Amino acid sequence: MNNLRQWFKTEGKEWFDSAVIALILALFIRTFFIQAFKIPSGSMIPTLLINDRLMVNKMSYGPLIPFTKTRIHGYGKLNRGDIIVFKFPEDPKRDFIKRLIAFEGETVEIKYGAIYINGQIIDEPRIRKTFYYDMGQYGVNGNAVKVPSGHVFVLGDNSQSSHDSRYWGYVPVENIVGPASFIYWPLDRIRIIK
């Protein structure tokens, strides 16, 4: 019994301390650097498949300071065509993933499968390769919508079955977690995301 008590005082304390440090380090990395996500739906097919597991680089756009709306300055910037993970505006406890289409102040219109920004057809190859259906309150053909300040407009690559900005509107920039960087599972799908 004394040996067991002695072990807990020495070895057990070391194990406990190591576990606490590992947990704190994991939470710090997840909060500020990189986070894993799993694709739950087919809204980004063919780019991302159901059950793909991917990493999001929070440092690119800059991570949010926990419990605030303040973002630490990142090393990159939002780019049209990026695939981004964000807190769903209608339920911030849920994470969504879509392709960034338009920025604040831009006018977006879907016509005959193509995206028009400020009256000009988009020539970004990652966006032009997809046929976008003109559906939903914000995506009706001939209905140009203006993205409000502090927001972005996002669409799924599987346009026919994606619940995106065409239906529920705009994503506040503060809701953006970061860009999807690479698929790490399943092994046959490991790749950098474009």
Q: Say which CATH homologous superfamily of the largest domain is assigned.
A: Umud Fragment, subunit A
What would you call the shape?
Answer: elongated
CATH A-level architecture of the largest domain: Ribbon
Given as residue ranges, the uncertain stretches (5+ residues, pLDDT < 50) are none
Strand-and-helix sequence, N→C?
HEEHEEEEEHEEHEEE
Number of strands: 12
Described by strand count, sense and barrel closure, the largest sheet is: 8 strands, antiparallel
Distance from first to last alpha carbon: 60 Å
Classify the secondary structure makeup into a structural class: alpha+beta
Question: Strand portion, in percent?
Answer: 25-35%
Radius of gyration: 21 Å
Question: Mean pLDDT, as a whole number?
Answer: 85
Q: What's the CATH topology label of the largest domain?
A: Umud Fragment, subunit A
For the record, the CATH class of the largest domain is Mainly Beta
When the domains are counted, the total is 2
Work out the helicity level.
Answer: 10-25%
Number of helices: 4
